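Margin note: ligand = zinc ion.
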Amino acid sequence: MLYETGDTIKAVYFPVNAVISLVVSLATGEMTEAAMVGKDGAVGMASALDGKVALSRAIVQLGGDAMVCDPTAFRGAALQSEKLISKIMRHEQTLFAQAQQSTACMAHHEVDARLCRWLLRARDLAGSDHLPFTQEFLAEMLGVRRTSVTAVARTLQEAGMIKYTRGKIEILDVEGLHECSCECHETTNEQYRQLLGPSS
Ligand SMILES: [Zn+2]
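Resulting structure:
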């Protein structure tokens, strides 16, 4: 865990190939992912500018490299550059766009389409077809029962789209996942392109 909700931000993270989930946790212990951040974003950037308080929990979903910046130094650099401030604001808009898309997705899209969306986003950010996720973790991120994830993973495996072995997913058919994913994957990518330019 990089931050808990309400924590003071002590570092701004710029993932290189690590993937971070911003999650909302409830008093009853459940948590749900609001946004996924990787090489196309940063964690803690806007909070470092002002309040320095984390608004959500940030957990490392996939370990890897990230560049780290001291929040005070980051704020100093931002205050001297209108261009950097503009980039930070646009980045925050992408996070908001992702969170609002996730809200609509959870309310209206089926779990199989949502899992495909989630795997595609994780694959894009990790730059790998091998994703070490347990079904428990996927169920937590998607806010569904583990049995639902098990059933969907089996269907995707039978369709030749993924290979699932204990705690590991290998993506075999990216096109197939795109076809089964809801529109939210492409919508989020388009919003990133509009706000931040080409993501890769
Ligand atoms: Zn969706």
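Residues 21 and 36 are 5 Å apart (CA to CA).
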